[in-house]
Design brief:
By secondary structure, this protein is an alpha+beta fold. It contains four helices and eight strands. About 25% of the residues lie in helices and about 35% in strands. Strands 1, 2, 3, 4, 5, 6, 7 and 8 form an eight-stranded antiparallel beta sheet that branches. Helix 1 crosses helix 2. The protein starts with a helix and ends in a 6-residue tail after the last strand. The relative contact order is 0.23.
Length: about 160
């Protein structure tokens, strides 16, 4: 798993396209898929935040997503659609709970600067295993041009 800043370093164009789609509406918007205890998928909208070199989400302390991520950190995040294009951006990997107060403060500042708000939600960093950007031409358009990235395994 790698951090957002490593995706930016390895594939700056892909990261920039993803950032633009995640922040298309000024506030970060995406659909977070998690794995329920029974193995079924669960999908909810979230407000992802790129800050402090990472990709983060605040998850409500009473949200089923929080339990999913604490039990089984696997996730997929897909950016909201835009009215102008059919472009897509998605990342997947494992979420890790962040308890460091200094990191939380930096991420919270970036999060609220977009107009989002939260109080005591749990902070997770979304570590990346893979990313995909689908770039479409003018409507109707098929197939898109795909850009993909996979995190190379870290040396043991």
């Amino acid at each position: 798993m790698k951090r957002w800043c490593e995706l930016e370093a390895e594939r700056p164009g892909l990261a920039a396209a993803g950032h633009a789609l995640l922040y298309y509406y000024k506030i970060g918007l995406g659909y977070l898929a998690t794995v329920r205890a029974d193995g079924a998928p669960r999908v909810h909208p979230v407000c992802p935040t790129v800050a402090h070199g990472g990709l983060y989400v605040f998850v409500g302390n009473h949200s089923p997503k929080r339990g999913d991520l604490l039990r089984d950190g696997r996730y997929a995040l897909h950016a909201f659609s835009t009215p102008e294009t059919d472009d897509e951006f998605t990342v997947a990997g494992r979420a890790e709970r962040v308890d460091d107060a200094a990191v939380r403060a930096v991420v919270y500042e970036a999060y609220t600067a977009t107009g989002a708000h939260t109080s005591d939600d749990t902070l997770f960093e979304l570590l990346l295993d893979r990313a995909l950007h689908a770039k479409y031409g003018p409507r109707p358009s098929w197939p898109p041009v795909y850009s993909t990235w996979r995190a190379a395994p870290r040396p043991l």
